[in-house]
Design brief:
By secondary structure, the protein is mainly beta. The chain has five domains: about 180 residues, Exo-inulinase, domain 1 (Jelly Rolls), CATH 2.60.120; about 90 residues, Immunoglobulin-like (Sandwich); about 210 residues, SGNH hydrolase (Rossmann fold, 3-Layer(aba) Sandwich); about 110 residues, Immunoglobulin-like; about 70 residues, Immunoglobulin-like. Helix content is about 15%, strand content about 40%. The strands form ten sheets. Strands 1, 2, 4, 5, 7, 12, 13, 14, 15 and 17 form a ten-stranded antiparallel beta sheet that branches. Strand 45 and strand 46 form a beta hairpin. Helix 3 packs parallel to helix 7 and helix 5 crosses helix 6. It is elongated, with a radius of gyration of 32 Å.
Amino acid sequence: MASVFQTYFSEYPDGTLLKDVAGWTVYGQFSANVNAARITGAQLVLDATDGTVMSYNTSSTSMYSEVRMKYQFAGTNRDGGPAVRTESSLDWVSIRLGGASSVSILSSNNGSRAILATYSVPVVIGDIVRLEVDGENNTVELFVNGVSAGSPVDISSVSDNTSTNAGMYGKTSDPFIDDLDLGTTASDLITLANEPSRKVYATFGPTYNYTISGTYEGVTTPTVIEYRVEEFVSGTVVTDWTTLDAAPTGGTFSGAVDIPRGPYYKILVRYSNATNIQSSSLRIGFGLVIELAGQSNTDNIWNSTLTATPIDDVVKFNGSEYQQPTDRGCIYAGLNAISQSLGCVVAAYETAVGATAIEQHLIGGDNYANRQAALIAAGGKLNGFWWGQGESNTGTTQATYETRLSELRADILSRTGQTSDTLPMFIVQLGRNVGGSGSESGWDGVRSAQTKYANETSDVYISHQSMDLPMDDGLHRTSQGYVTEVLRFSDSFLAAFNGAGNSGRGPIPTSATYSGSDVTITHNLNGSTGLTVPALATSLYELTNDDFSTTTNPTSISYVAPDKIVLTFASIPTGTVKLRSHQGQDLDETTFPTGDELHNSQAVMVEPITIETTVTEGVPPVTVDITLDIGAPDGTYKTYLMDVDDNEVFSGNVAYSGGSATITGLSVAAGTLLRGYVDSGNTLESEGCGIKGVTV
């Protein structure tokens, strides 16, 4: 006996029509009947007044259909439940509840219905009802809760004796059933090793080397065991029938195969010499597994609600099993984005605990065992590690917190046995404490430690800024704020995963020079094409020549080029001059400079200068207009300007008209050699260098 389709329906999103599930055909007199069978709340629901037949090929004339009933006799005949020989809307064998203490086998033969047998057996909600066909003897037998209701009934004159289809039949009943198992009753059996539904294997590279194994028994000896891989939902064949085990022996089979990273799959196995002897897996995924650790602001992204629905290829690991999310945590906005971008399954789990210090997540800490257990249960490998914590460590020195980050990083690499390039770490920059004292150095020290550690450590990234996010209370973001930050995280993850692209980190200050009383800060725009600088941003920046024992703020601030802002001071002090910004814990987000890269309709803030930047004397920049005349058709194209060392001076989308475009207000040093090129996405016949010259 072999199961060929088994489900609890919890693995399908609400609203899924059974006809859209791979392998199923739904019959009805009208289109409404065909659309009647749908999955809602982990149950199969029927909502048509006429009969609906649901059919799946078991590949054997000896078959069974078993369901868990969700309805019972209600004063009149109620037709429907398990069904066999489901050939059309007119040909099938099912059941009728004709009384509170009886059940009948009901057949339809070319539309002509007949009661084949009636049994004094009650059927109530929760009972498991099964119809089992013996294809050789052309009989059907009814079982209720595993007990035969009576002798097998002859069906040689009913429906099609060569039918290999089983399924369900039913009329209006909401809900209809909530568990389903279809299979064959042939004496030969092949069984796959058990895998829990929706399990995800962390995949490194384009494929995962997976061992398919199982057992077989019966009178037929397999010469070769073959396997096939299908996309679970669409039924698209990924790998058609291919040899898995060329010489199975002793009732077992096994073979290692490369399965591509992708959406959820179904794996099927069969005898090559008796192809009707086969079995299939539940959903199995080869994609990404991510841990999210930290304190309350990480925990809250799972618990703060969002109206968006997690897509089918996003799964939550709860510490013991993989679940199709039924909640609407904000995290799913980010996981959806990663899954859709990479076209693969994404599983995630959290080990965050509110109000915890970093030490509690390390060896000897009271949350360490929980993190260890979750990792082992999830498979022991990770594709990414989110760290969102710091509020409980603002009394820790910068050096100590940086050391703790190093310990945290070493531990996760040790426990997974992975190298850093396969397990990137994403640090959430510490946010704000609204209503705090405003200048506590501990908050600055944590941010500085985070930035310094990320800048100096391979495969560790500042994932995103959080100071500018809307707040729900003194420490925690609103739901919209959490959505914004998980979308920023998704960009950072994809940039690291793909080895290129713009992260959600925001524009990053790279250098500062002074001339006269002006300090010019140059930024890596990181996906933005320009900066917005509020006038009140002067309160964020501090200049010193005595290591910040005393500081001065700029008198004004202005945007002078896509990647540059200028701070004007009353005067520039002598000696070693340093600059920093965004100090303290209680900052006003409306003062933050931002780029124009949007996440959840919110621009990303310019990264704070937490590592004190030495300001060097520089040549005053000149503002020039650059015209590129390349004969391009009218349109907007990504345009780049580079200096002689291939440093990017400008990048952004530029509108071309009449074959040329002008970039105005470009701030570069006099005498800079510039060359430009256009990347149109291969929509232009001629691309490449569009300008070459020296600014004057």
